[in-house]
Amino acid sequence: MFEDLLAKPDAEYEITFRLFDTEGTGIVKHETLQKLFSSAKGDNTIPFDWNSGWAALYTGSKKTRHDMTYPQFAQMLRGLQGERIRQAFHLFDKDGDGYIEPEDFQRIILETSQHKLSDHLLENLPTLCNISSGSKISYANVRAFQNIIREMDIIDYIIRSAVRKSDDGKITRSDFLNEAARITRFSLFTPMEADILFHFAGLDAPSGRLELGDFAKVIDASWHSASVLGREALAGASKATEKVTGTTSQVLHNILESVHHFALGSIAGAFGAFMVYPIDLVKTRMQNQRSARVGEKMYMNSLDCAKKVVRNEGVLGLYSGVIPQLIGVAPEKAIKLTVNDLVRGFFADKDKGGKIWWPHEVIAGGSAGACQVVFTNPLEIVKIRLQIQGEIAKNVNETAAPRRSAMWIVKNLGLMGLYKGASACLLRDVPFSAIYFPTYSHLKTDFFGESPTKKLGVIQLLTAGAIAGMPAAYLTTPCDVIKTRLQVEARKGETKYTSLRHCAATIMKEEGFKAFFKGGPARILRSSPQFGFTLAAYEVLQKWLPMPGSAHEEVTPTGYVEPGASLQPASGPLPYLRSRNALKLILDLEPNFGRLQAPAGVGLPVLSK
């Protein structure tokens, strides 16, 4: 039974052996090996000489031919690919100078090792000639490249070990060789092998300091079969593996992940809002102060405003309306953070370590800002009116209305009234988030050096969030001023704004251009630390409260990893892993094994669509 065969510890080699032991006698004859190997090769493939000196070491010369036992056959497989490459090199080295053209090297690798290499390597094979002078590739280059392929597993381990020890998550050629010397005892890498590894890994990052994402393009453990049938079989096996290991469906996982992000975002948002609420109150009162106010000008600047609030209303006056703010800011910030994460995840290039093009970062941030307005506008209008009524109560020159609760304001405004000034809110929040989130992301990676192996501390996260909030807050202050004026109930003697355009035109006419930046410094002092606290709390909470049932996935330099392909423990069943490894051994022999061959001169029929 095939299942019994897969249960054996050396199933990979025995499966391959049985393909050539056609008579079931426990031996492989030279004639059978040569016949099956030749029948699998196409007309335009690189030939292989089974009568070579290397082959004679395993099956004897023509005069002393002998059969191979299973252990002999398995050992022969270990060196077969190297001999195929050596013979192919001699075939293309027509003048015997030890060099071949880059195109010939590419053809050799495509025929012998394509199933082991990433798309990045396959596309850039001809560039191997760039590591040395001249435009050709030497036999030493070819052997060094082959050694890199053969030692992918240990290279994977060395790179991850070296990167973990690096402060910025990046390593140089020297770092790699030093770590290899520490880890390996006899399998030392030559300078040329290190040059080749860093050449291909650094094609898109020529600085010489490379991170895991750069190496992933070279040592990606995923592979693709040579036929549609092979791809379908691999896909079916992968699905079976997922079923066996009980993988949660992607849809359910995404829903749970969104709920998790939403909950953490709510807590982080409330924390950030509370920490800077007094500054927000000062900002609102400064923006609502009009130059043409009936009576005297109440506040000279933000500091004067804060002093008068404390003097007239007490310290608690700085927190007027904080409860509705905390209740409303939780879903607001949660939506913003969740939408930004989801949209960034949609645009992120998984093959490049999650990198994202900067216009897509702007789109993700803008989308987050647009979605939050659903909660932001009602929250803002209630908060602003609560913040202003304390000022009204202390203004002896006006007939102050009695203090109103948040519920009274909501009931009095109604659903339509709660969204008064929503257009201005959109005009503020979309550009704010479009500026903020990309800036925050690049500060973390480009300035503070965050990487898959280097996590930032709370102070660094707080600083990045605060710095990113400065340009975002100040540049959107005019929109915030317009929104505040539209949402505050006009007092006696003040102009009543009818629309966004009317408000902007009136402010410009009556107060001048500078009025659009009223409360700008206070807005920076509020928004900058608020988002710093919020984002820092959000990322700390993600570490402290990871999504239940999901382990933190270590970023490995293997790109798309099939089960058990790298040094990470395999999650798939052993029979599947052994059958997959057996297929790789067969492809090492000849990529066309198992592919339907048409008779000479006869084409395969084309299936109708």
From TrEMBL:
Q: Which residues form a coiled coil?
A: none
Q: Which CDD domains match?
A: EFh (cd00051)
Please give the PROSITE patterns that the UniProt record associates with this protein.
Answer: EF_HAND_1 (PS00018), EF_HAND_2 (PS50222), SOLCAR (PS50920)
Q: What Gene Ontology molecular function terms does this protein carry? A: calcium ion binding; L-aspartate transmembrane transporter activity; L-glutamate transmembrane transporter activity
One cellular-component annotation, GO: mitochondrial inner membrane
**Where is it localised?**
Mitochondrion inner membrane
The Solcar repeat units are at 256-346, 356-446, 456-544
**Main localization, broad class:** mitochondrion
Instruction: Alphabetically list the UniProt keywords.
Output: Calcium, Membrane, Mitochondrion, Mitochondrion inner membrane, Repeat, Transmembrane, Transmembrane helix, Transport
Its membrane topology is listed as: Multi-pass membrane protein
What biological-process terms (Gene Ontology) are attached?
malate-aspartate shuttle
* Domain EF-hand: from-to ranges: 80-115
The UniProt entry, under Pfam families, shows:
EF-hand_7, Mito_carr
The family classification in the record reads: Belongs to the mitochondrial carrier (TC 2.A.29) family.
Q: What does this protein do?
A: Calcium-dependent mitochondrial aspartate and glutamate carrier. Transport of glutamate in mitochondria is required for mitochondrial transamination reactions and ornithine synthesis. Plays also a role in malate-aspartate NADH shuttle, which is critical for growth on acetate and fatty acids.
Cite the record's note on assembly.
Homodimer (via N-terminus).
Q: What is this protein called?
A: Mitochondrial aspartate-glutamate transporter AGC1
Q: Which organism is it from?
A: Trichophyton soudanense CBS 452.61
